[in-house]
Specification:
Elements (H helix, E strand, L loop, with lengths): L1 E5 L3 H15 L3 E5 L2 H9 L3 E7 L7 H11 L2 E8 L4 H9 L4 E4 L4 H16 L7 E5 L2 E5 L1 H7 L3 H4 L10 H9 L1 H6 L4 E7 L6 E9 L18 E6 L1
Parallel strand pairs: 1-2, 1-3, 3-4, 4-5
Antiparallel strand pairs: 6-7, 6-10, 8-9, 9-10
Helix pairs in contact: 1-5, 2-3
Length: 233
């Protein structure tokens, strides 16, 4: 695994590299202090995970998201920011970030969360379809799910989950959001639509809650986004 960290603060780069290396044990970690420098890494050997600051001199993290999506050689992209801004978070997801994380969570907690999500995205990568939904948007989909639904990657990433997931399941999650976030039961059946044949593909939705993400310190769990992992049966 090759990880790219992008931030204009050299001290943050050093500290974050330390925690990511400890949590994920990647083959290689490369650092960049500008979007232009990061682009050279993306266009060169490619990267599996990108962690990028939003607010940097010159080009921003949004520019990096556009570059990564255009080149298509990046796996998971996480944006981190000191701005607790819901509009910024929504825009980051629309542009292809899998999550937009508050730097106030702490560097170690962010590294741990990235390790957990990356493991979810990759642990069954070669077995069946996987989709990850956050804030009602599709933020990750693997090749098996693309093949099953007959969508292209760029058509799904950043789009609303209503595009492919059955409305009954979505209505249930919205109606019982608070209870699901407290309850130990977090698994439910759902279906994903095949675009061409209009058939329904049986799946299971697993709601991943902050309180169950081991290794995240309790005072910061309120800052951790919960997400849904959708697995093809």
């Amino acid at each position: 695994m090759r990880i790219l960290i992008v931030d204009d603060d050299p001290d943050y780069l050093e500290l974050f590299s330390h925690f990511l290396r400890k949590e994920m044990r990647p083959h290689e970690i490369v650092c960049a202090r500008t979007v232009d420098e990061a682009e050279r890494h993306i266009c060169g050997a490619g990267v599996d995970v990108v962690v990028s600051d939003y607010d940097m001199p010159g080009k921003s993290g949004f520019d990096l998201l556009d570059i990564a999506r255009r080149h298509g050689t990046v796996g998971l992209i996480f944006m981190v920011t000191a701005h607790n801004d819901r509009m910024l978070e929504c825009e980051a997801l629309k542009r292809g970030a899998i999550f937009c994380l508050d730097k106030g969570m702490g560097t170690r907690n962010i590294a741990r969360f990235i390790a957990i999500v990356s493991a979810d995205a990759n642990k069954i990568q070669n077995e069946r379809g996987v989709m990850i939904v956050a804030m009602g948007r599709i933020v990750h989909v693997n090749e098996h799910m693309l093949s099953a639904t007959k969508y292209r990657y760029e058509e799904l990433i950043g789009s609303q989950w209503t595009a492919v997931i059955d409305s009954e399941c979505i209505s249930f999650v919205r109606k019982h959001h608070e209870r699901l976030n407290r309850s130990a039961t977090k698994k439910m059946p759902c279906t994903v639509r095949d675009r061409e044949d209009e058939k329904e593909i049986p799946c299971t939705m697993l709601i991943k809650k902050p309180a169950e993400l081991h290794g995240i310190s309790k005072p910061h769990r309120c800052q951790v986004p919960y997400y849904a992992l959708i697995l093809q049966e």
